């Protein structure tokens, strides 16, 4: 997030898109709801389903799946055409405005309506509301990123925020809501194939030499590694021989699961390090039991970039060890001795080699966390990014054209499928499905379908249906709901017994390599 969670309540206008906030981020959603209910903030919701946030929305734009670049370009068209953009901000702090202006010129509200299904007048209202606000904040999640155009979608949101000058101030910004408690921290620590900690490029020789000096080694590669979505096909082709999976369950969370299983079966050796015996762990040659969050000391970095202490509350069961202890023991056996007195010493090394974490110490975050970047111990941290300038100096507009999803509905597969989460289960259910109360609330997979489509396909609420895509089929319960839009069905991805990702398309965003989980074509019929 460019801003803080608390900042959400400072906004005059909130634009929420690609985020079922009340179910995916229930605590954070309360900040948005309070802003609307008690401070009079206006909420613009852009979502194909009538999610809980629609009850708080002043404008709800119900777009066709995979058309986010089109409606964003349409909003910017209106804002530029009506002279509502922040001319001072654009002139002093950005580059590329003329190219953006040329690109969005054809995205009239009427043209956009033909692509997105959003009524032209509603789009104009949303554009004016966002542009004329003193402080407007964008909140988004995986409904924006999990597309073959996910990178374009995020850049378009940044375009909109810069166009209106809603950056670098309280109550503004572009704020991605992370899907798990330490996703931000994992990325910060180099859990990506092309960077070291603090997003220092692997391909930068100077960075490699700095790391070599810090670790007492030579010859660190400057070649980026593979993303997880590149590892799977590499395993299938025999190019990747071994896989080490830590805290991930790809046999439920990856797209096109039938193919994903075949990929893992082609490996010579697989290790899984986790707190429970997941579906993936059951395939592993070796399983290493690790500690959960309450059984270890350390830090988590949350969605607002705040680095916070985690303190051990209970002893781990059986032979479970801290993740760092397991990795150190393995490294030592492989020939590189790696020893630390504990998490504090590891944090001290992080600060030494990571500029954005340089001033973060256990002492400073004993009672309250700090936001990175925090380059030295005198620095107070950075709750709001881009106050005076962007990281690269001026912000760059990206002129982006709309590209349709990789797979469209047709006569054979006439319905669109989108996937997501429900409040009572979490991710692949590794933890939540151990809870009797949560399983009582959300016991099984279901397909959410509109009343019109239920009548068309002759299925009733509570009955069973077969859903088939070009990649596989699953049998699920039917949930007829006004949340659904005609022509589109929704399935939560938590349930391994009827895994939604058996159906989803493994087509990737060409830049970040994320799969298009949010759009694919399916057929539906009564289950035998």
Describe the structure in your own words.
The longest helix is centred in the first third of the chain and has 14 residues, at 26-39. It is globular, with a radius of gyration of 24 Å. The protein contains 18 helices and 21 strands. Among the domains are: 6-177, Dimethylsulfoxide Reductase, domain 2, CATH 3.40.228; 415-526, Barwin-like endoglucanases (Beta Barrel), CATH 2.40.40. Helix 3 (68-81) crosses helix 7 (120-132), helix 6 crosses helix 7 and helix 12 (228-236) crosses helix 14. The chain is an alpha/beta fold. The chain has helices at residues 21-24, 26-39, 68-81, 87-93, 97-104, 109-116, 120-132, 142-145, 150-163, 183-188, 205-215, 228-236, 250-253, 257-265, 323-333, 343-353, 436-441, 451-456, and strands at residues 13-17, 42-46, 59-61, 94-95, 136-140, 174-176, 242-246, 269-274, 286-289, 298-301, 306-310, 370-371, 395-396, 415-420, 446-449, 464-468, 473-480, 488-492, 505-508, 515-516, 520-526. A 6-stranded mixed beta sheet has the order 15-17-16-21-14-18. It has a 5-stranded parallel beta sheet with strand order 3-2-1-5-6. The protein has a 3-stranded parallel beta sheet with strand order 7-8-9, with no helix packed on it. A hairpin with a 4-residue loop joins strand 16 (464-468) and strand 17 (473-480).
């Amino acid at each position: 997030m460019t801003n803080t969670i608390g900042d959400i309540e400072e906004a005059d206008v909130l634009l929420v898109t690609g985020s079922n906030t009340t179910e995916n981020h229930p605590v954070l959603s309360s900040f948005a709801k309070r802003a609307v209910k008690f401070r009079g903030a206006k909420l613009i919701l852009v979502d194909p389903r009538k999610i809980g946030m629609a009850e708080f929305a002043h404008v709800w734009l119900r777009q066709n799946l995979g058309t986010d670049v089109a409606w964003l370009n349409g909003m910017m068209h209106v804002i530029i055409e009506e002279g509502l953009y922040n001319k001072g901000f654009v002139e002093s702090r950005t580059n590329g405005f003329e190219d953006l202006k040329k690109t969005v010129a054809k995205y009239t509200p009427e043209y956009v309506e033909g692509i997105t299904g959003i009524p032209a007048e509603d789009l104009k209202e949303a554009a004016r509301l966002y542009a004329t606000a003193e402080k407007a904040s964008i909140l988004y999640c995986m409904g924006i990123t999990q597309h073959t155009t996910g990178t374009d979608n995020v850049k378009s949101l940044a375009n909109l925020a810069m166009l209106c000058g809603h950056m670098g101030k309280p109550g503004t910004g572009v704020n991605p809501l992370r899907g798990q408690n330490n996703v931000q921290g994992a990325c910060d620590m180099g859990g990506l194939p092309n960077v070291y900690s603090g997003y220092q490029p692997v391909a930068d020789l100077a960075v490699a030499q700095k790391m070599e000096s810090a670790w007492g080694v030579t010859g660190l590669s400057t070649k980026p590694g593979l993303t997880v979505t590149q590892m799977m096909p590499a395993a299938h082709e025999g190019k990747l021989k071994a896989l080490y999976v830590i805290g991930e369950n790809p046999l439920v969370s990856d797209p096109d699961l039938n193919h994903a299983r075949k990929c893992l079966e082609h490996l010579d050796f697989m290790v899984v390090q986790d707190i429970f015996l997941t579906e993936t762990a059951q395939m592993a040659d070796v399983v290493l039991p690790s500690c959960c969050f309450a059984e270890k000391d350390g830090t988590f970095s949350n969605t607002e970039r705040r680095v916070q202490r985690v303190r051990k509350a209970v002893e781990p069961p059986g032979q479970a060890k801290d993740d760092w202890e397991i990795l150190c023991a393995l490294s030592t056996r492989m020939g590189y001795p790696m020893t630390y007195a504990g998490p504090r010493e590891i944090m001290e090394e992080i600060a030494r080699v990571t500029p954005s974490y340089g001033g973060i110490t256990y002492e400073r975050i004993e009672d309250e966390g700090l936001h990175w970047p925090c380059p030295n111990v005198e620095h107070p941290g950075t709750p709001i990014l881009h106050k005076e300038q962007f990281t690269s100096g001026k912000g760059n507009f990206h002129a982006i054209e709309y590209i349709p999803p990789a797979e469209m509905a047709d006569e054979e597969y006439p319905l669109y499928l989108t996937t997501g989460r429900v409040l009572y289960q979490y991710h692949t259910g590794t933890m939540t499905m151990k809870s009797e109360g949560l399983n009582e609330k959300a016991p099984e997979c279901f397909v959410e379908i509109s009343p019109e489509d239920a009548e068309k396909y002759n299925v009733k609420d509570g009955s069973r249906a077969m859903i088939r895509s070009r990649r596989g089929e699953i049998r699920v319960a039917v949930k007829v709901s006004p949340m659904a839009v005609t022509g589109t069905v929704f399935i939560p991805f938590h349930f391994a017994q009827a895994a939604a990702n058996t159906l989803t398309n493994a087509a990737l965003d060409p830049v970040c390599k994320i799969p298009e989980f949010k759009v694919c074509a399916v057929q539906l019929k009564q289950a035998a």
